[in-house]
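PROTEIN SPECIFICATION:
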Amino acid sequence: MRNKPKMKVYYNSACPVCKAGIEGQMDKDSVCEIQWNDVHKDNGLVSEIDSELELVRKRLHVVDENGDLQVGFNAFLAIWRNSPTETWKSRLFGIPIVMQICQVFYNIFAAALYQWNRAKKHW
């Protein structure tokens, strides 16, 4: 019998938008065992992915089912790929040109959200 694949999600709960999105995702089924790692509650978790705290605060990080680090929009694709009710999102938004457009919008949104959180002194 093969073990269930595992994923690790690194997110920042100090951001209310990020927290709400992740909490919504936690309630969904996944074909993977998912470890949810809140870098706001434990800043040292970033060392597991050889990253810096500010980078994880800026963009979602996921170690996918293959052990590969996915950052930003690609992290969402990894989560959706392993969620039975959301695999359609990973297929649609994973189409190369669609993915490139989504990555640009995600990066713009994430940068603005990071600046907003800093201005609001969420951390």
Summary: The first helix runs from residue 16 to 26. The first strand starts at residue 6 and ends at 11. Strands lie at 6-11, 33-38, 61-63, 69-71. The chain has a mean pLDDT of 95.
